[in-house]
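User: quick one - fold this with EPZ bound?
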Amino acid sequence: MDKIRIRGGIPLKGSVRVHGAKNAVLPLMAAAILAEDACVLHNVPCLHDVFTMDKLLSCTGLVIDFTGRYMTLDPANINTPEAPYEWVRKMRASFFVLGPLLARFGRARVSLPGGCAIGTRPVDIHIKGLEALGAKITIEDGYVVAEGPLHGGDYTLDFPSVGATENLMMAACRGKNFTRIMNAAREPEIEDLARFLNAMGAQISGAGTDMICVAGVDTLHGAEHVVLPDRIEAGTFLIAGVATGGDVTVLNANPEHLSGLSEKLREAGALVEVHGGHVRAAAPDGIKGVDITTLVYPGFATDLQAQMMALLTCASGVSRIKETVFENRFMQAAELTRMGADIDLDGNTVIVRGVPALSGAPVMASDLRASAALVIAGLMAKRGETAISRVYHIDRGYERIEERFASLGADIERVRE
Ligand code: EPZ
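Assistant: Sure. Structure tokens for the protein plus EPZ:
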């Protein structure tokens, strides 16, 4: 098991390019199930979750070749509308294959995803949505067994679930039906998926708004697509720049996708500048505490909550962070406290009282974004060394994170145990 060792207190300086978005590429890979011929994805990030999706899709017969950041997905031999537990349990996003498998084959058998560190993460909205579109669904031995055909129709999501919106949008693409998905999630990754599906010949409009319309078509052909930049990776680097009193520029971010973060960093007293696709954040004089409530897009992203908590541990004053999207996403709080932070938990809200400095300590990663928070805390620590174990959590969503931060001046290394 690898560990990441950090000796903090060094202001990060410089610029970095972010990779393709993890939360875009995973549904894009699933969407290739719908095509009659090969698809090509560019700017694919080299992440553990991408390898897991590769293995899962290979179980259906989809043939994937992934070299560098270039991926071909060939559905010529796709023949098994199944997603086995061994892969689905590793990664909840595996469940996004249900909609495309059902649309292509008229039936599908996909394992129910287990819960994970940040919550039980049910799939009731996915299932109720597919049933509203005509699917007959039973739960058998821990698997969702779905039968078509889908007849389309209107469905209003109880909650604007990103995955449910993507599953339903993909399910509705093929077949002679018209579907309206209301109270849809509006995340940029959904727009990216719709662009790819439309390039394949789908008829989707409204992606990025809360009402998505899909006119089903008989078949979809292959298409090429460039995965959009990862707004959460970009936000992680900008937060780290501010947290270390440095000056960091992300060269290929989409500023519109970072507006919630930019406004919050400015409110805390950081300098945030946008020049075209470059976003710069700096805070040479430190920051003050702010209140944050995580919301669905375009509100403050839940996937940046943990990173902001690390930043706010050394703000001047008190901060309140309210997590409204997931039920248990404060896993980083206990480890940050071990590094000297002053954090009180109260249900879905935490109170963070700024302290002068953190101290390095041995800590354990628990989930992807909590792990990123621990890296930021290690970079902030003015004394001692931070050793983060279970870094496989980080590798799920960040490519060689230690090299990226080292390029910004951090004293950080990965050690193999
Ligand atoms: C996606 O997860 C992202 N993952 C998550 O990123 C992200 O945090 C989340 O959207 C919210 O933005 C991918 O895109 C691969 P949801 P998803 O369905 O689709 C509840 C990361 O760190 N819910 O929008 O699983 C659910 O329990 C990951 O990169 C139901 O109750 O999230 C949660 O409380 C973490 N029933 C809330 O909705 C359902 O059927 C939001 O979940 C579905 C969801």
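One thing worth noting: The two ends are 6 Å apart (CA to CA).
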